[in-house]
Design brief:
708 residues, mainly beta, 23-stranded antiparallel beta sheet
């Protein structure tokens, strides 16, 4: 008889126990399951023994949610907010405001999907989340092990292991607004010592917004091989192609009355991405106490886009290409019963090229209807980046109850930049500037220490503390595509420090987690407007504080509750830059230095909340129903704290029915109340024109999953 497992998915940082609930006739067999994670040390460790904030979403969680967008799954983690910008486009907010800032690291099986300097806030769409085996989310800095970008958090999406016997799985899904998705997975043993798995994801959507198509084709092939008794190799090849049209923000009237409106038509604001990754993770058990891990990798990425945020003042199309060759190497050793030592070296070499063409756009009644290339190249340059990063970490079991962790990482980055445009191409035409740095070699270095302590108050109760440093180097675009910014090559890395205190309690049928954190960020790279031109600079000091809490509770044999709640307080402590604004954006011309010290950080929700109530009726054992509630709290829409978005609350309903051993039927009804809400609300400083990104209306999706 089929007996599905329920895993609460609203896990909070450092959640150490998942409550595994079977159907009523087997409740006596219910037991706690130790959750293992690999992100924190690149090898399996018990989550409850780590002095840092990690949440785990299991394969069963992913299957139950069947996410159509990364937000559907990830927003169930306390303290995590991922919004929906159309297709699989998104921004993220973990201990940070909702933004495109490169303060998150996206990993697939521990490998960064992109090299430092090429962050894309939509980076999760380069990974096949619906067919992944599990997701680990580290909240707060992880730079001591992973380097640049790991400030707000780390998403590590882990692929499914190949089965030992032949398995084939087919999922077909259809839904509102032309949504169609097909997932195929085939796995089997290849030899007595190896097994393989192939996954394919084909997704297509017309979207509820006008002229907003989305196409995805992604595939992965994994081969696990036992080379001998002490050496295991995991080969992984991943490819993804995403093609989506642009989706505009709306003014207030259209947002409220005509949220399906899109100010872009045709290919306006298009985005086209192709991403290939190849890797081979080699693990050699050197002895009973030591292991060597080597992970050589190759990336090949190409992205073409028409930046929507530049259409009104500097319309262009651009293309970024890079390939990467590198190696992650790590040695781990259990020195004695109390001491574990991990040390490693990461190397990455990523040559890249960026080209940008000027275009003219056609606009009628506020709608962008078409564009043409003018033939002028604004930018054409190479930016070859290399990095070498040694790190070391020591974990000491000081007593039966107390464990201490200390680590440090040193990162050295070098970028060789070469301008490929002839000197005769002008950098300035009229009031417009496309400044180009001279050929140069830049380097950055950073030292990222961390310290953590965990104390076992009892077998079911722990407290922990950690302090971690983090950083982010300026992106290639910020440095070498400066627009009107002079001295862009002098941009400094963003610096961050995070302290966190947490407590957790596990009972027979519940787990409760609380944590308080404070994250300080200095020298953030921000953009501003000067004489109708967008520029970038290092600016000031912000402080991000919050309390995160989660409760997972098996109420009865049939009813299960998962909930998470976050309160944040995010302030500008020292934040000023030059600001200019001209009509029609502003009523009168303004050019002045503005200081936002003491103001709330813009686009930072004051609360984030999620609760999901699951029901497994005893009289229909194969049926599982879930009602989910989500809340995004109020936030200011810019730095001046003049305008605000009042937040929203949403309800979703999901159903899974295991018709037979081979057939599962499922459905999800999103936005039950058909609420009009905005996934991102903002305005330019000095402008009263607020822009809204309308969220999905009430939408139904149904699917079937066949296993044979």
């Amino acid at each position: 008889m089929y007996k599905p497992l329920f895993f609460p998915v609203c896990l909070f940082s450092m959640t150490s126990v998942a409550v595994e609930a079977d159907f009523p006739e087997t409740q006596a067999k219910e037991q706690h399951v130790e959750v293992m994670v690999v992100t924190s040390s690149r090898q399996q460790q018990q989550l409850k023994l780590l002095a840092e904030s990690v949440a785990v979403l299991s394969e069963e969680d992913i299957r139950k949610v069947s996410p159509g967008h990364p937000a559907d799954l990830l927003n169930r983690v306390a303290g995590v907010h991922v919004n929906d910008l159309g297709g699989e486009g998104h921004m993220t907010a973990i201990r940070q405001p909702i933004s495109t800032s490169g303060v998150y690291l996206f990993l697939e099986d521990g490998l960064p999907t992109r090299p430092t300097g090429f962050f894309n806030h939509n980076g999760l769409y380069e990974i096949d989340i619906p067919q992944s085996g599990r997701v680990e989310v580290t909240k707060g800095p992880g730079s001591a092990l992973y380097g640049s970008d790991a400030i707000g958090g780390i998403f590590n999406i882990l692929t499914k292991a190949p089965p030992l016997s032949r398995e084939t799985e087919l999922s077909l899904e259809s839904g509102s607004d032309g949504w169609n998705r097909g997932l195929i997975a085939v796995g089997a043993s290849v030899t007595d010592q190896s097994a393989a798995r192939w996954d394919l994801n084909w997704t297509k959507s017309d979207s509820f917004r006008e002229n907003a198509y989305y196409d995805r084709l992604s595939s992965s092939l994994r081969l696990d091989q036992d080379w001998n008794a002490t050496t295991k190799i995991k080969y992984l090849a991943s490819f993804g192609k995403i093609d989506q049209s642009g989706v505009s923000g709306l003014n207030e009237q259209d947002y409220l009355l005509r949220p399906q409106t899109n100010y872009y038509t045709g290919d306006i604001a298009f985005r086209d991405v192709q991403a290939l990754r190849l890797s081979a993770e080699i693990r050699h058990q050197w002895s009973d106490q030591s292991e060597l891990m080597l992970l050589p990798f190759y990336r090949d990425n190409k992205s073409s886009l028409m930046p929507s945020w530049m259409l009104s003042y500097d319309p262009v199309t651009s293309e970024t290409e890079f390939y990467s060759m590198g190696l992650l190497a790590q040695w781990s050793s259990q020195l004695n019963k109390q001491l574990q030592w991990i040390s490693g070296l990461d190397y990455d070499y990523s040559p890249a090229r960026y080209t940008e063409w000027q275009i003219t756009v056609q606009r009628e009644n506020g709608i962008y209807t078409g564009y043409e290339k003018t033939g002028r190249l604004h930018y054409d340059f190479d930016a070859d980046q290399s990095s070498v990063s040694p790190y070391s970490q020591l974990q000491w079991q000081a007593s039966a109850a107390l464990s201490l962790t200390a680590g440090v990482r040193y990162d050295y980055f070098k970028v060789d930049y070469r301008d490929l445009l002839p000197a005769s191409v002008p950098e300035t035409i009229g009031r417009s500037n496309w400044l180009r740095p001279d050929n140069t070699h830049l380097s950055y270095e950073a030292l990222s220490p961390k310290f953590g302590a965990l104390y076992q108050l009892s077998a079911q109760q722990q407290i922990y503390f950690n302090h971690r440093h983090a950083f982010r180097v300026p992106s290639v675009g910020q440095v070498f595509r400066p627009g009107s910014t002079t001295n862009s090559t002098e941009l400094e890395p963003v610096k961050a420090r995070n302290s966190e205190l947490g407590w957790r309690l596990q009972g027979k049928n519940y787990s409760l987690d609380l944590a308080y954190y404070q994250l300080d960020i200095k020298d953030d790279v921000v953009s501003y407007i000067d004489s109708n031109e967008r520029k970038v600079t290092n600016a000031g000091h912000t402080r991000h504080k919050g309390i995160e809490a989660a409760l997972v509770w098996a109420l009865t044999d049939e009813w299960k509750l998962g909930s998470g709640f976050t309160i944040t307080d995010q302030k500008y402590l020292d934040f000023q830059y030059l600001y200019s604004c001209f009509p029609p954006a502003c009523a009168a011309p303004v050019t002045e230095t503005r200081n936002f010290s003491g103001f709330d950080v813009g686009k930072a929700p004051e609360q984030l909340a999620n609760a999901n109530l699951s029901y497994n009726p005893a009289y229909i054992q194969a049926l599982q129903l879930e009602l989910e509630w989500q809340k995004v709290g109020a936030y200011f829409t810019d730095e001046t704290n003049t305008n605000s978005y009042q937040g929203h609350q949403l309800w979703h309903l999901r159903a899974n029915y295991q018709y037979s051993n081979d057939l599962r039927l499922y459905a999800r009804l999103m936005n039950l109340s058909d609420k009009v809400y905005s996934t991102y609300t903002s305005n330019q400083v000095g402008s009263s024109a607020i822009e809204y990104r309308p969220g999905m209306p009430r939408s139904l999706f149904v699917g079937m999953n066949l296993s044979f």
